[in-house]
Amino acid sequence: MPTIVSGTVPASDLALNHSLEQLPELQFEIERIVTSGDDALMPMLWVRGSQREDIERTLGADPTVDNVELLGDFEDEWLFRMEWVDHVDLIVQMLTNSEATILDAVGQGTAWKLRVLYPRRSLFSKTHDFCAEHNLAFDVSSIRELDEDPAGRYGLTSAQYEILAEASDRGYFQVPREVSLAELADELGITHQAASERLRRATDALVEDALFVDFDGFD
After folding, report:
1. Please, is 34 exposed, middle or buried when counting C-beta atoms within 10 Å of its C-beta (0-12, 13-18, 19+)?
2. pTM (2 decimals)?
3. Which of 24, 104, 132, 199 pairs with 93 at a CA distance of 20 to 30 A?
């Protein structure tokens, strides 16, 4: 069964640790990543949090990367392509030996947060064993199997999925609203307070899952 694993890896165990140390305000977000031989990766990634000149100078001095190329300048964020030539063993293992797809990867401060899709949960065991054998830290925060329950696919509980689906179907999110929260609560057989809290938590969970935000060490 396909499984999504989310967790953090120390920046020192992946590429760009030098840049993150030199410019702590930087944030890297991978747009796409592919393998390039056995000892290098070629990601395209967004860089935010500093000035372009400082970013280019720091990347040029980073020993974990090579062939840095600026692809796009969007005033307060920049799209780069580069080769990762050091500290890439874990990512290569995920992409090749474990047949994984890296859905999201964000680096900031002292850590990278990864969200990785494995075709089968058993394949994550290969990554787990690899980390143990090579003294790498992959601090897993969640493991979610993508079963037939639509709630699980979006990181929601069944109750949270129910209220979001009902709210959308009844026009709660329309402007103006076509149903009140009190009416939703009555239809679901719960109190107004319970409906409000459930809807808020469901929205938070959905946004966090979609936008990959709100975890330790990141703003």
Report:
1. exposed
2. 0.76
3. 24
